[in-house]
Amino acid sequence: xxxxxxHPLAPYAVVVGGLLLTGIGYAAVTxxxxxxxxxxxxxxxxxxxxxxxIFLEECATCxxxxxxxxxxxxxxxxxxxxxxxxxxTSTGRMPAKEPSAENDRKPPExxxxxxxxxxxxxxxxxxxxxxxxxxxxxxxGANPGFGQQLFVADCAQCHNFDGAGGALTYGKFAPPxxxxxxxxxxxxxxxxxxxxxxxxxxxxxxQEKRDIIAYIVQTRQEPNPGGFSLGRIGPVTEGLVAFLGxxxxxxxxxxxxxxxxxxxxxx
Amino acid sequence: xxxxxxLSGTGSWLDDRLHGAxxxxxxxxxxxxxxxxxxxxxxxxxxxxILLLTGTFLALxxxxxxxxxxxxxxxxxxxxxxxxxxxxxxxxxxxxxxxGLLMRQIHHWAADLFVxxxxxxxxxxxxxxxxxxxxxINWLIGLVLFTLSLLEGLFGYSLPDDLLSGxxxxxxxxVLQSIPIVGTYLSFFLFGGQYPGTDIIPxxxxxxxxxxxxxxxxxxxxxxxxxxxQKHTQMPGKGRTNQNVVGxxxxxxxxxxxxxxxxxxxxxxxxxxxxxxxxxxxxxxxxNPLAISAGSQPDFYMGFLEGALRxxxxxxxxxxxxxxxxxxxxxxxxxxxxIMTAAALWPFLEQWIxxxxxxxxxxxxxxxxxxxxxxxxxxxxxxxxxxAEGANDVLAQHFNVPLYTITWIARxxxxxxxxxxxxxxKRICLGLQRKDxxxxxxxxxxxxxxxxPSGGFIEETRPLDEEELAALGRPVALALPSGEGGAEAExxxxxxxxxxxxxxxxxxxxxxxxxxxxxxxxNGxxxNGxxxNGxxxNGxSATAEDHxxxxxxxxxxx
Lengths: 267, 558
Description:
Chain A has nine helices and two strands. By secondary structure, chain A is an all-alpha fold. The mean pLDDT of chain A is about 85.
């Protein structure tokens, strides 16, 4: 045994020293963070509390007291994120009037401040996609031509070539995109509400999402150079017009033109 | 009336050389009967002329090529998008050629009106029995023209190579492929290889602008010439017989009317093209074989085929490595093939059933041929169910009905609705005949109510005058040389013997079902279908038998 041999208590000293250092370091870091974010955190927790209150009032009947969902009635909201809440409530789909195959768009029941509160509450339960910023949905620099190709490849099979919507099976439908705001379109792609698949930022990049939004918005804003649009739903209304408009007009013309007979002199 | 010397001089100069005066006189004095339904075919004719004119304009600017180009035209939204030259030139016509969009829209509306008018015209011919001898050939030509119009339309709306027309083209290819054994070869032949390839647009283009219009012109020429030669049919009326035509002469009356009618057609189409947008290909985007849009529909005239495809269960056989795609083959072939075959055979079948080999130049009122009218309406309802089903997704979306519910309703309706339509139509026709009979027997109500000395009230009626009586027409009921029924004891005529004869007799009984009209001079129509057919069994001629029936004056005195 040499004299250089470590003292028997040395290992304990090292452990205690390490713990002390870590603790002090951690305290220093968190204290610094706390000091700068303290008022915001208070507001946020207040908002979450408000959101929780609204949630219990408006949503908990179906989604459960802890947002855990009710099997067969309503899904769990843990992890769906603020984007889903914002989409569902700002389009008026939630709170739903009644359970149905697909919820209709209607005027929102919650005001923007309430929506933000519920969104914050749901986000606090387990993260998830966040509400896009205005820069994320801006049409500036977006390419609607490329958006058209993406739309036709990914969206048109349900929403129609120009976003007029379409029928799905068992009473479900793809809603028309005539009233959706750019933010709502972005959120819908991100969260996949109801029958819609999720198009996350890997499948369709944020830039491509902006291209699609630009296409939808420009298409619905552009005038109809050919006259009345006939609903922009394709040849069905055109056929109706051909029969009830054109053919009927010609039939009336034929009746009119043959109404007067030449008097045949008696032989 | 003095004729200007310069005019008469030119006229004689021309006549000395061309000898046209005599022919022109006949032409000018040709008589055309006046009835609004006789102008339905003219709508189709004038739409066709407008189609030729606008089509020529479009052909000046359209490029039937599938070469890929990058678009840099006026329609900014699609700037930089890769597309075929055909689609790019259609955008160019729509946005950069002066008047191009108007021409495109007139052309498309005219195509819709063309087929709609053909349908209406065909139904008029059928329901009034105007296809009967001697006009069977013109009826067949008409059926060919109708089929060609569907093809012409299909090829036409495929040309712009947009997303919607591409879906139609893909179905066309599917139908070709579904033909057993040769399907894949036919598809490769039409498309020059794999779908879609680069050959199809130029090929469809030449069919659309040259071959089919050429056939159209030849067949329309024949159709009109035969009509002119055989003279027009007329609705029943006073003094109208199978030997004359009552109406106005070509010049100046009919010429003025038909000329005006052309301008009506043009005006309606121009107005529609100005105010109603049709086939906005710029919204559909360029065709991409990987993509499909919700609400993809063909133009209305292909809608019944689309509907047939949509109600068909997915039946498919694989035999010795060959796929028999009944899910496509049956809906593509059966509805159109069935209707067209039945329509083509019907005039001859009717002749066989009724034994009626006479010429007919006076039309029937639909009520006076209840079985024919009921059959026609059954076909119309069959077509209608399929047509509505072709838009099942649009109906589902706009009327909030689940999609499959509509499909299942249509699956049953396509069989049941024609049956009910047949029964109901026949009853309606017979009811209308009874109403006519009531008019004949009791006269028209005058609205004058008189009090009788006894205190009662009666409404005065007046008998129908000659014109009104003639306009009612006569129920169609044509006696066979021999029948069955009450004549069991008698010996049936030769062509009524055996199994086929019995079928004929039974069909004859169905076709002849009508309300008897037993007023003087009714040619014995009333007697038929009520056991009176047995009269002829002893070999009397049909006329003699008819008179016998009239004089007997009632139904069942066999």
